[in-house]
Amino acid sequence: MVVTQENVSVNGSRRLSSQEIADALRKRINEGDLKAGDRLPTQAELAEEFGVERGTVRQALRALQDDKLLTNVSKGSPPRIAEPAPVRDDEPQKTMWALGPRLTEAFSEPQVRVDVLCHTSETLVSALSEPLRLLQEGAVEPESIEFRVLLPAPDIKLAFPVLVADEENDPVHRRWLGMRDAQARVLELNLLAVRKISRRVDVRVDFRTLPFTPPLKLYLLNGKEALFGYYLVDQREEEYEGRTLQMYDALGSHSLLFPFRKQIGRGDRAFVEESQKWFDGLWGTISRPMELSP
Q1: Which of 35, 72, 168, 242 has most Cβ atoms within 10 angstroms of its Cβ?
Q2: 55, 16 contact by CB (below 8 A)
Q3: Which of these, 210, 255, 211, lies nearest to 233 by C-alpha position?
């Protein structure tokens, strides 16, 4: 492969720095003059082209390697142009906007498996409307759908939501428990209704409870993607049972979800795999079967 000569000096005598050489090569890569898999010239050839010492070329190549633009640097042969990293379309978004499209994508696979850790399944129920509509229309046809949902146990003292001023027979706890159970029933009914659309789809929905208040929400989709978000606690008021409740609570639908996908890279892969191990560990050890309140 021939690399064209570039202007290597400002005044005809000044030698370029390693950064300037790296920038020149980076420009060729970005403009397509150098394509993924192409070999660069040898360090000696590059040194001659740019009129610098080979040590300066080596520094430039290391900088390009750090930017994931080169592979095989310092392995005894000219480096190659690296394959471009997958384009990330996963900027953090509020749960109310991010979850629905991710679930819809998950439902396009033959085996759908969704594991969830949250306070109530209210946001999950809302986000499922689009994939369930596509199922009804026959636009997606999974062979199996499995949901496992971890929620706080009903008899623990929650860290939130709680009254700002503590009192017995906490109405905030009663309100939360009613929401938890109502949304769980809706989620279960909506998913099991898929069997009426197609008897060929194997549907399983399981709920279990945890003896603590989750400080975060986690959605694991088909073992390939993790959506992670913090519950941000704030003081707010809510009307309930004829009174205004001053409470510390978190609005889960407004939490930012940070997506991690296995195919993006080793960091994302590790996060997804460790999150799945963490969920499976909770599910198989300290969680208990969930009984909906009457």
Answers
A1: 72
A2: no
A3: 255
Share in percent of the chain as helix, strand, coil (round to 5)? 40, 25, 40
The pairing of strands 93-94 and 256-261 is: antiparallel
Residues 6+ apart with CB under 8 A from 160: 213, 231, 233, 247, 248, 249, 250
Q: Are 192 and 198 in contact (CB under 8 A)?
A: no
Helices (H), the chain: 18-30, 43-50, 54-66, 95-106, 122-127, 129-137, 171-192, 194-197, 266-284
CB contact at 8 A, 210 and 286: yes
Is 227 in contact with 257 (CB distance < 8 Å)?
Answer: yes
Neighbouring CB atoms inside 10 A of 138's CB total 9
pLDDT tens digits for 50-98? Answer: 999 988 988 888 888 877 788 876 656 788 888 765 545 567 888 878 8
Query: What pTM was estimated for this model as a whole?
Result: 0.69
Taking alpha carbons only, the member of 94, 88, 79, 95 closest to residue 38 is 79
**Residue 97 burial by Cβ neighbours in a 10 Å radius (0-12, 13-18, 19+):** exposed
Neighbours of 196 (CB within 10 A): 8
Place of tokens 């609005």: 251
- What are the tokens at 41? 């010239």
| Terminal alpha carbon distance of the chain | 75
